[in-house]
Amino acid sequence: MSILEIIGGILLIIGSIFLFLGGLGIYRMPDTYNRLQAGTKATTLGGMSLVLGVGILEPAWIWKALIIIIFIAYSNPISSHALARANYRRGHYPYIKSKDKKNMDAYQEVVPHTKEKEDKV
Amino acid sequence: MIYFILISILLLLMIAASVYSIVQKDLLYAVMATGIISLILSILYFLLQAPDVALTEAAIGVALTTIIFVITIRNTVRMEEEGESKEKFKSAVK
Amino acid sequence: MTYIIYIALTLMALGMIFSAIRFVKGPTAADRTVAMDTLTTIGVAALVLVGYMFERFIYVDVALVYAVLGFIGVIVIARYLEGAL
Question: Measured between CB atoms, which of A24, A39, A54 is closest to C52?
Fold first, then answer.
């Protein structure tokens, strides 16, 4: 095995482990915002690492792999941000365990809470 | 062997997604299930060595179908109902 | 190297199955949309890896189209949920 194959194999394993952890976090987390965090950030790192690993293993593919990495890096945060903002404006507020609820949720200075919308699905 | 297991898992997921899309009363969830069916179908075309068909399916199924169906739901009703849905649909289309 | 590809494909299939369970169970519309977005990202990675397994250069184009167009559906559904479409 050459040095490129070892680096590519390690990147493949790291990427697939982070993709699996993203799926597991989607299943286990208690709240929509926590699920968004697990499902977007972990899969962004996993997908970028795995595509880079394939590009290192097969050196002719590296430019197309870099283009895929750029598109993943800009499209995943855009969709996550749009979804979180839409969910907050519909009246689903974050799950906060401590009693000091007013100081934990800083975004309510921009979009105030409206309690009557909370029960809609 | 891994080929057979992969195709079996994808086919089972695709059948489950289609049954979910038919049974579901909320039409927005049915549209999302249609997007998942399109993704799995594209991977299946890919595994059966037809990348051009997979390219067309990806471009049409993931973007165009979702956009057109969501705009249709915006203009009509979201929840599918049992009895008087025909009159509601007519009044929404006008 | 073949066993590394098999292990990676198995882990990604497990992640897809967990996301599909959350898609069926999830109580609100945003949970299902998050599950759909995660399924799309894992699908892009799986397409690139299967293209490497078959040793065909043209197969990466499908993953490229998915990476370019995959987020448009999520943005349209989010704007519809916000009420601003």
Answer: A54
Looking at the structure of chain C, the number of domains it has is: 1
**Other C-beta atoms within 10 Å of A2: how many?**
7
Each domain of chain A, given as residue ranges in start order, spans 3-117
Q: Is A65 exposed, middle or buried (0-12, 13-18, 19+ CB in 10 A)?
A: buried
Q: Which residues, in sequence order, are CB contacts of B16 under 8 Å at separation 6+?
A: C20
Judge whether A87 is closer than 8 Å to chain C, CB to CB. yes
With H, G, I as helix, E, B as strand and everything else as coil, classify residue A30. coil
Q: Name the pTM for this structure.
A: 0.86
What are the C-alpha distances in Å from C70 to residues A11, B7, C56, C62?
24, 22, 23, 11
Range of the domain at C55: 2-82
Question: What are C27-60's pLDDT values in tens digits?
Answer: 888 889 999 899 889 988 888 988 888 888 888 8
Alpha-carbon distance of C85 to C75, in angstroms, equals 10
Which site among B12, B45, B46 would you substitute to test the C interface, given the most C Cβ atoms closer than 10 Å to its Cβ? B46
CB contact under 8 A, C65 and B58: yes
For residue A12, give the nearest of C8, C63, C78 by CB distance. Answer: C8
Chain C residues with CB-CB distance to B9 below 8 A: 13, 17
A39 to chain C, any CB pair closer than 8 A? The answer is: yes
